[in-house]
């Protein structure tokens, strides 16, 4: 076990934060050993995956456990589907690429999303008309108190928009160690979202394939989102709000260009990035932090910024959007 370890290179914002103590685990057995250690029973613990969805505003006065449980293996298959199990420490994009290369369909629209397998069901990650709940079969997790493993069915995960049981009822109670996915051997393409269709046409793609869709998504994401290796960020900072249709129609009168997408009876999803841009924040910079020049939904650390500064900026953005549109933005990033 290491002590007073810098987490700067373990979070995509590139923020400096010291872990009181630190341990990397590469197997469920290693994790179980830590949880069963009587000397660590009362030690606060913080689970770290890819560090792509956290905002470190302070030092972490806890035992930081870095989950590096790897491995991808076939569980079973039939004529239409294949079931793959992946360790929680596998990088999400690497897993997507593995599936694309082997012709397993269902997650190609989720290409280039940062983070790990373990964080994916927690957030119910999604993009371009696809969410992870569409392909999850089961989620394995180990409980802090008992060190016992439980397998959660898709239904038990209580997936919602960027939500799951692991973010609410089970928050701080268990650690995801692996996920089993059911993927398709016969692709069902989702190309009607965003600029996928346009990008495919520009690339001269006449016959669809999951690789073509993945390549299009990667190209779009690279054109809109900064690479964390170059500019510190956590991707989309806020959730896209879902508002009552009546409220949307009233706003549409004042703002005819306001985009909206029906998500459930009586509710419309509005792009948070559009709201932030209209409130004048796109490209804003204050010293080492700011709002990205190409995508207002992304808050950035240009180098040397602090988590507290980014937190305060996010609160200013929330306040201005609330005042202008009467819409409350909720952070997708977890504040630590």
UniProtKB/TrEMBL annotation:
<dbReference type="InterPro" id="IPR011601">
    <property type="entry name" value="MurB_C"/>
</dbReference>
<keyword id="KW-0132">Cell division</keyword>
<dbReference type="InterPro" id="IPR036318">
    <property type="entry name" value="FAD-bd_PCMH-like_sf"/>
</dbReference>
<dbReference type="GO" id="GO:0071555">
    <property type="term" value="P:cell wall organization"/>
</dbReference>
<dbReference type="GO" id="GO:0009252">
    <property type="term" value="P:peptidoglycan biosynthetic process"/>
</dbReference>
<feature type="active site" description="Proton donor">
    <location>
        <position position="236"/>
    </location>
</feature>
<keyword id="KW-0131">Cell cycle</keyword>
<dbReference type="GO" id="GO:0071949">
    <property type="term" value="F:FAD binding"/>
</dbReference>
<keyword id="KW-0961">Cell wall biogenesis/degradation</keyword>
<keyword id="KW-0573">Peptidoglycan synthesis</keyword>
<keyword id="KW-0133">Cell shape</keyword>
<dbReference type="InterPro" id="IPR003170">
    <property type="entry name" value="MurB"/>
</dbReference>
<keyword id="KW-0274">FAD</keyword>
<dbReference type="Pfam" id="PF02873">
    <property type="entry name" value="MurB_C"/>
</dbReference>
<feature type="active site">
    <location>
        <position position="162"/>
    </location>
</feature>
<dbReference type="InterPro" id="IPR016169">
    <property type="entry name" value="FAD-bd_PCMH_sub2"/>
</dbReference>
<dbReference type="InterPro" id="IPR036635">
    <property type="entry name" value="MurB_C_sf"/>
</dbReference>
<dbReference type="Pfam" id="PF01565">
    <property type="entry name" value="FAD_binding_4"/>
</dbReference>
<dbReference type="InterPro" id="IPR006094">
    <property type="entry name" value="Oxid_FAD_bind_N"/>
</dbReference>
<dbReference type="GO" id="GO:0008762">
    <property type="term" value="F:UDP-N-acetylmuramate dehydrogenase activity"/>
</dbReference>
<dbReference type="GO" id="GO:0008360">
    <property type="term" value="P:regulation of cell shape"/>
</dbReference>
<protein>
    <recommendedName>
        <fullName>UDP-N-acetylenolpyruvoylglucosamine reductase</fullName>
        <ecNumber>1.3.1.98</ecNumber>
    </recommendedName>
</protein>
<dbReference type="GO" id="GO:0051301">
    <property type="term" value="P:cell division"/>
</dbReference>
<dbReference type="InterPro" id="IPR016166">
    <property type="entry name" value="FAD-bd_PCMH"/>
</dbReference>
<comment type="pathway">
    <text>Cell wall biogenesis; peptidoglycan biosynthesis.</text>
</comment>
<keyword id="KW-0560">Oxidoreductase</keyword>
<comment type="function">
    <text>Cell wall formation.</text>
</comment>
<dbReference type="GO" id="GO:0005829">
    <property type="term" value="C:cytosol"/>
</dbReference>
<comment type="similarity">
    <text>Belongs to the MurB family.</text>
</comment>
<keyword id="KW-0285">Flavoprotein</keyword>
<feature type="domain" description="FAD-binding PCMH-type">
    <location>
        <begin position="15"/>
        <end position="186"/>
    </location>
</feature>
<keyword id="KW-0963">Cytoplasm</keyword>
<keyword id="KW-0521">NADP</keyword>
<feature type="active site">
    <location>
        <position position="332"/>
    </location>
</feature>
<dbReference type="InterPro" id="IPR016167">
    <property type="entry name" value="FAD-bd_PCMH_sub1"/>
</dbReference>
């Amino acid at each position: 076990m290491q002590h007073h370890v810098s987490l700067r290179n373990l979070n995509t914002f590139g923020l400096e934060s010291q872990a009181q103590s630190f341990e990397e685990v590469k197997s469920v057995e290693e994790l179980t050993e830590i949880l069963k250690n009587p000397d660590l029973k009362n030690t606060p613990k913080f689970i770290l995956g890819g560090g792509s969805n956290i905002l470190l505003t302070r030092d972490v006065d806890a035992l930081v456990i870095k989950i590096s449980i790897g491995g991808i293996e076939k569980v079973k298959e039939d004529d239409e589907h294949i079931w793959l199990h992946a360790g929680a420490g596998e990088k999400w994009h690497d897993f997507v690429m593995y599936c694309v290369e082997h012709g397993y369909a269902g997650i190609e629209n989720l290409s280039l999303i940062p983070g790990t397998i373990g964080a994916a069901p927690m957030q119910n990650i999604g993009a371009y008309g696809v969410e992870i709940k569409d392909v999850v079969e089961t989620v394995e997790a180990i409980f802090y108190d008992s060190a016992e493993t439980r397998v959660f069915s898709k239904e038990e995960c209580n997936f919602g928009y960027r939500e799951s049981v692991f973010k609410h009822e089970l928050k701080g109670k268990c650690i995801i160690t692996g996920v089993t996915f059911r993927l398709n051997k016969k692709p069902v393409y989702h190309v009607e979202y965003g600029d996928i269709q346009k990008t495919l046409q520009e690339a001269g793609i006449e016959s669809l394939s999951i690789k073509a869709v993945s390549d299009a998504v990667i190209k779009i994401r690279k054109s809109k989102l900064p690479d964390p290796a170059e500019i510190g960020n956590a991707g989309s900072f806020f959730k896209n709000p879902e508002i009552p249709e009546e409220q949307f129609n009233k706003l549409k009168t004042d703002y005819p260009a306001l985009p909206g997408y029906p998500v459930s009876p009586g509710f419309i999803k509005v792009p948070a990035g559009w709201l932030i841009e209209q409130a004048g924040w796109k490209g804003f910079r204050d010293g080492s932090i700011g709002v990205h020049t190409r995508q207002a939904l992304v808050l950035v650390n240009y180098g040397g910024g602090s988590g507290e500064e980014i937190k305060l900026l996010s609160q200013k953005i929330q306040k201005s959007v609330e005042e202008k549109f009467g819409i409350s933005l909720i952070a997708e990033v977890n504040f630590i």
